[in-house]
Every structure is written in C-alpha cells, then in structure tokens.
C-alpha cells in the first residue's frame, strides 16, 4: 500500500510539472545535450550539422499541422546540438562567456503533419565582433523539400566569436563574408532598432 501511494505521489508530481511548467522542453533539452556530448566533436566550425525530429501530437495546432512556434523550438534544440558538437559552448564557458538569441527570422514553405519526419540542417554562415549568424533549414525527410528556413543571430556575451574561435582553432580565424541575405537582414534589423529608438 505504501509503494502504491508513493507511485501515485510521483505520478501526481510529474503530472503537475507537465501541466504547470513546460517540463517536456527540459526533458528534450537534456536528451539533446546528452546526445550531442556523445557525438565526436566537429573540427570544422562551418560544417553543417543535422538534427532529426518527428512531429508529435504535442506539436499539432488547431489546423492539424505543426504549430508555427514549434519550428522555432525545434531549431533551438538543433542550435544547441550544433554549438555542442562544434565545441562552441565548451570554449565559450572556458572564456566565461554566454550566448543569447539576438534575432531570428523564419520563412514557412510547407506544413509538417503528424508523424512526419524532418531534419534540421544548421550551419554557421559568418560572424562579427558580437555574434554568430546561423542558417537553419527544416527539411522533410520524405522528399527533401525545405519546409522552413530560419536565419538566427546568436549574440555572444562576456567574450566574442573571435576569442571563441581562436581558442577552438588555436589560431586567428578569418570568417567568411556575410551572404547577401544576411546583409539585407542586418540592415532590416538596424532600421528596426533605429525606428524603435526614435519612437520611444
């Protein structure tokens, strides 16, 4: 009887966590970090990283396809895996730095349905003195179609991308030139910041 009571208590606590907090997010993040730590570290910081996923019932919205916000959430897991396997998080922590999402833009091209499998291909496009710029493609495994594409700015705090890469590569690293779409996006962000400063 005591064992049954303890099992019920644990189930009630777990249910309360899943109802009152987004416990599944933290479970998924732990699994993502664990899997990324078990992978061989990637030496080339510009190499693309693949993160596999499947659309679950918890991802579905009232229209019957994956909720728009879930794409960004899946991209969050994929970026974490990219930064771990490429050694960026380890180097950043050694330098006592941090990382925060500075901006993101996503374009949706096709809906993902229940139980559809996909892979998120993430790659660092370039960097500057303050941030890494990452492209993430959500690709349907059934036909290779790019269902969504995201552009992300990862702001580095307490250190810089240059210092992180110097620690990783043991030498100064010259980054690639920003692609035209990144330059256009940066200009949009600059104009948006200026507009918000002027309006306040």
TrEMBL record:
Gene3D superfamilies: Hotdog Thioesterase
InterPro entries in UniProt: HotDog_dom_sf, THEM6_lcsJ_thioesterase
Pfam families: 4HBT_2
SUPFAM superfamilies per UniProt: Thioesterase/thiol ester dehydrase-isomerase
UniProt similarity note: Belongs to the THEM6 family.
Name under which the protein is recorded: Protein THEM6
Superkingdom of the organism of origin: Eukaryota
């Amino acid at each position: 009887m005591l064992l049954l009571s303890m099992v019920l208590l644990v189930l009630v606590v777990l249910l309360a966590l899943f109802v009152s907090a987004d416990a599944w997010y933290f479970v998924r993040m732990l699994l993502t970090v664990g899997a990324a730590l078990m992978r061989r570290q990637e030496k080339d910081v510009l190499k693309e990283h693949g993160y596999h996923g499947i659309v679950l019932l918890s991802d579905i919205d009232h229209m019957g396809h994956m909720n728009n916000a879930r794409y960004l959430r899946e991209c969050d897991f994929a970026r974490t895996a990219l930064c771990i396997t490429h050694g960026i998080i380890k180097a950043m922590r050694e330098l006592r730095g941090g990382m925060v999402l500075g901006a993101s833009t996503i374009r949706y091209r096709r809906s993902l349905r229940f139980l559809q499998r996909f892979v998120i291909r993430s790659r660092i496009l370039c960097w500057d003195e303050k941030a890494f710029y990452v492209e993430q493609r959500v690709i349907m495994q059934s036909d290779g179609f790019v269902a969504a594409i995201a552009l992300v700015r990862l702001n580095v705090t307490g250190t810089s991308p240059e210092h992180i890469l110097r620690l990783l590569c043991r030498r100064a690293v010259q980054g690639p030139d920003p692609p035209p779409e990144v330059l256009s996006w940066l200009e949009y962000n600059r104009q948006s910041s200026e507009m918000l400063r002027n309006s306040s």
